[in-house]
Amino acid sequence: MKKTGWLIYNKESSKINEGFITWFIEEATKLNIDLRLLLKEDLSYGVLNHRLFILHKGVTLEKPNFVISRNNDPLLSKQLEDLQIKVYNSAFTSDICNHKGKTHQFLANKDIPMLDTLFINRDEFEPNYLPFPYPVVVKDVTGRGGNEVFTASSVEELRTLLWKVQAKELIIQRMGDVPGRDVRVFVVGKTIIAAILRYSDNDFRANFSLGGKARLYELSSEQQALVHKIIDQFDDEFGFVGIDFLFAKDGSFIFNEIEDVAGSRTLYAHSNVNIVKLYLEYILKSLE
């Protein structure tokens, strides 16, 4: 029996990811899935007559078997789940992984190496009381793609920076041992699919979208074990994510963040992995 699904993007992201969306639709067709693109701007949802609802262009659609949410909106994902629709990634994953503070808070105390991290509200923070030395990295908790990431080398620089940034919720982290290099591990369900080393000679950020370079990276057994330890903390919540790591001086991994709406341009450019097919096959299997 043919499965039905919604692929949700906002309008801006749908234009940027037109090729990726086409890839999704084509692979879905091969797998006998009726996958329909819905724009977030066309959806309305909430409570009506004491009951949860969701409308598309003002009309109630037949519920799909699943939703792939390529939109950072935990509230929408939770609405869909409460309407008994399976969502990938789950609302829990979306809530935790789209907030860098929540991600670190959730994974702390679980023997997962991570940078010293301070959770702050810009308007309620005194820079004189930083509990670790400079230099530091300042991040918008909801930033993506290396955007809204800054450095400060002194309390004066930090104070000035906090006046300039727009976001109120931030994390401040001790600068990593090896700036400009990180590894993204692509995960579908509980399976490690591939890893990509991203590096930059000109920037402390290694993001491919900011001009960094990339190549396939072979994980050691210790690194694989750390990835699986993180995966296990989320039970069966992952559909498709990217888990990012920095390097310690000894070459071991330091957890950095989890990308809920993971981009895969580097994987496409440097491998023959059909990540969309693998993702859709995982969804079909999990729906059985």
From TrEMBL:
Biological process per Gene Ontology, one example term: SOS response
One annotated GO molecular function: ATP binding
Domain ATP-grasp: residue ranges: 104-284
Cellular component annotations (GO), alphabetically ordered: cytoplasm
PROSITE patterns named in the record: ATP_GRASP
UniProt entry keywords in alphabetical sequence: ATP-binding, Nucleotide-binding
PANTHER family to which the protein is assigned, alphabetical: BETA-CITRYLGLUTAMATE SYNTHASE B-RELATED, RIBOSOMAL PROTEIN S6 MODIFICATION PROTEIN
Name of this chain's protein: ATP-grasp domain-containing protein
Source species of the chain: Anaerobacillus alkalidiazotrophicus
